């Protein structure tokens, strides 16, 4: 048999699909099926090979990985339709999982393992998709310019003392859409729109760049405070380049709303595809992702937080401290997404 590599990349260049060590089994009906699953994923971290190899060692099921950008993967599975070889989609942000859900891609999974291990607020109410790691969207501050005692809540970011001192990326970004969608859920539409207008008035510059760009702007003193997902900061701390390390040292992490509902969290996650050709193996893979070793690799690959209680946390991530999480069901980020986008647009958040 011809040997292929595991990965198939979408979008750029040519690709190869894996069938290495293609293992066949006899099902009860006597049908010969290949022991493999096809995972469409927007992840591409160093620990992922360990993650997939661990599953193959445990089950004998080969993992074929199709990597691509988040929205491209959703479009690809949609266009493949009933003939899609996709068994599982893994992507980031509950708002984006909701997009895939709206496209009709997921099938519900009934699994005691998943419902027991994954907190209810981090999975779809009908178990169409599940969170496998958590990210917190926090305030990052310049340690020379800001005393953390000046910080308290997301709401506080709209206060006048921060005029011209706040950076955050654009409203087209799904993380911000989900943040605002979460605020709609807890504060209501009117208060959220008012908050958006207030923080727009506090912008140090028109939104530009990704979360890393906000961290760099804060470190450089272009702004006092910024909003970013926690996992962007450890990348600087772990870099060998002293200039990158200096950025890490300059920037503090503040978890907002600790005296109230808690800090906004989002997920990386995935679910079973409606037309999955290898359904049983795919469900076994989702359950595997909730196991202790897989949780460790899944979270550490991107310096995120595991979702299953008791999983060890990366030391740099742990150095930010423990925090209280907002337990709003992340599926609200999807259902409130359209309204969030409208509100941000009305508030002039570009
Ligand atoms: Fe990100």
Describe this structure in words.
This protein is an alpha/beta fold. The protein folds into two domains: 7-134 and 267-313, 3-Layer(aba) Sandwich (D-Maltodextrin-Binding Protein, domain 2), CATH 3.40.190.10; 135-264 and 323-346, D-Maltodextrin-Binding Protein, domain 2 (3-Layer(aba) Sandwich), CATH 3.40.190. It is 37% helix and 18% strand. It has 14 helices and 13 strands. The protein has helices at 48-59, 70-80, 94-102, 112-117, 174-187, 189-202, 211-219, 232-237, 242-250, 279-289, 292-300, 315-318, 332-335, 337-346; strands spanning 7-9, 24-26, 32-34, 36-41, 62-67, 88-92, 106-107, 130-142, 166-167, 225-229, 251-254, 265-273, 305-306. The strands form two sheets. Strands 1, 4, 5, 6, 7, 8, 9, 10, 11, 12 and 13 form an eleven-stranded mixed sheet that branches. Helix 1 links the parallel strand 4 (36-41) and strand 5 (62-67). Helix 5 (174-187) packs across helix 14, helix 6 packs across helix 14 and helix 7 packs across helix 9. The protein is globular. The termini are far apart.
